[in-house]
Write a structure and sequence with these properties.
9-stranded mixed β-sheet; 15 helices
Length: 476
């Protein structure tokens, strides 16, 4: 059964009847929990089965990290460095316009040294010294693949299940289906690394699409105003704002009775949430009381508001307080040239804070029901874009295989799934499509992705479109 009854056109009598004793009950529930009183109901019957993950932190690396330089060790690249990629390996697959005109496609091995770590023997390069030390907490999928070869459609595909704009993001689906665990904070929060150059990010990546607008991600920013337009204007105190909201709510309730438009209810819920966030957001953004050892764990950049490290620490604080889905975006991985320096800089930014976040969650007993995800939108080619020099090379986009890792709730520890060929160019075993990953993520949250739909324009949509299978082999 699907929860779209509130979208049907009711008469006024039917509408009042379906509010369980009418407006009196609505007013009473408003006193008890204003957020739930005016929000449209979440998807009926969820979760479909006991969830292993209660919350998610998704560390998205925008631009496409180079899998063969970080996690997918390929010693043959060292032996064949500078030689042409075999035609049997390259095949007739798509290439971008940036390398389509090349007459030569020389294989390139990075200068990074790989070693095996932990009881699992995970191969990790020296770009990630901190993650190397917690390798037995990680679950790698080395056979990810996607349909898109350029950044914008690839990021949109991974975050919404479609290459075309307009679909709800993963976090919006989770918010819509499972609701919030804290009435004073949004179910879905977005953090973007400050002053980081790279492929542009658009708000539609954390948008609600055709779901009610209250389920869109709320971006928290570093600085005096973490959430835009949340603070009262000059000359408006809390009492005046409360009176204004009460008057507005009364008008909107009349409009809701007349139109039965679910977006009116969503707007009321958003206004009420914003009012409560005026108190809750400053408290959660104030990290001054965090002990010194926490800053030492996350690294010196954790003291810089808006850095990846500071946002990773903030993500822990958010899930501690009941936020269901936290999305971090870190730009700058698009290494068409200067790949060595690019990846050294990028890995320095994210390595220590990512490892610290996982261990911080673990020491607080949160990792057992929090899922942490680290991925880009696709991988990089094993051949060089342009010429190889003694100090530099570039790598183009590569959708045919890339590496993703997870840690925490419901996934195997110290485990690697899927393999690529000797060039990290084609998948050899256990391919995992983007929709398979999304289906697995939903499964960990207790959701059957095939049954979790929303009817829009005459069709029932889901995150995984009409594809996707749960990857049971990675589940603990």
């Amino acid at each position: 059964m699907h929860c779209h009854d509130y979208q049907k056109g009711y008469t006024r009598r039917e509408f009042l009847g379906k509010t369980s004793l009418g407006l009196g009950a609505l007013a009473l529930s408003g006193l008890m929990n204003p957020l739930q009183a005016f929000a449209p109901p979440v998807h009926s019957g969820l979760p479909h089965f006991p969830a292993k993950a209660k919350r998610v932190i998704y560390l998205f690396q925008s631009g496409g990290p180079s899998q063969q330089d970080i996690f997918d060790y390929k010693p043959l690249l060292n032996k064949m460095h500078g030689q042409e990629i075999p035609p049997s390996v390259k095949g007739e697959g798509r290439v971008t316009g940036m390398t389509a005109g090349q007459s030569s496609f020389p294989l390139v091995a990075g200068p990074f040294q790989f070693k095996q770590y932990g009881q699992s023997g995970a191969w990790i390069s020296d770009l990630m010294p901190y993650l190397s030390q917690i390798s037995d907490e990680l679950c790698f999928i080395k056979s990810m693949h996607t349909d898109a070869i350029n950044h914008d459609p690839a990021i949109t595909f991974l975050q919404t299940g479609s290459q075309f704009p307009g679909r709800p993001s993963i976090g919006a689906w989770v918010s819509y289906g499972l609701g919030s665990d804290n009435e004073n904070l949004p179910a879905f929060v977005v953090l973007v690394t400050k002053n980081q150059r790279g492929q542009p990010l658009y708000a539609r990546l954390w948008g609600n699409g055709f779901l009610p607008s209250e389920h869109q991600g709320v971006q928290f920013r570093a600085g005096e105003n973490p959430v835009l337009f949340l603070s009262n204007p000059p000359g408006v105190d809390a009492k005046s704002r409360r009176a204004q909201l009460d008057a507005l709510k009364a008008l909107q309730q009349q409009q809701l009775e007349h139109t039965q438009d679910p977006e009116v209810a969503a707007k009321i819920a958003q206004y009420e949430m914003a009012y409560r966030m005026q108190t809750s957001v400053p408290e959660i953004m104030d990290v001054s009381k965090e002990p010194e050892y926490i800053y030492d764990m996350y690294g010196p950049a954790s003291r810089i508001p808006g850095s990846f490290a500071a946002n990773a620490l903030l993500a822990r604080r958010l899930v501690e307080r009941g936020v269901k889905f936290v999305q971090l975006y870190h730009q700058g991985w698009d290494a068409h040239g200067n790949a060595i320096n690019n990846h050294r800089r990028q890995c320095t930014d994210v390595d220590q804070p990512t490892a610290a976040l996982i261990m911080d969650l673990k020491q607080r007993g949160l990792l057992e029901d929090t899922l942490v995800i680290w991925s880009g939108e696709f991988g990089r080619t094993s051949y060089s874009q342009g010429k190889i020099t003694p100090t530099e090379y570039g790598r183009d986009h590569h959708p045919s295989c890339f590496t993703l890792f997870m840690a925490g709730a419901g996934v195997k520890k110290g485990f690697s799934y899927g393999t690529t060929d000797d060039f990290s160019y084609n998948i050899v075993s256990n391919p995992v499509h983007v929709h398979d990953f999304q289906a697995t993520l939903m499964h960990l949250l207790g959701i059957d992705h095939e049954r979790f739909t929303f009817k829009y324009q005459g069709r029932r949509f889901r995150l995984t479109d009409v594809h996707g299978s749960v990857v049971h082999d990675i589940l603990a």
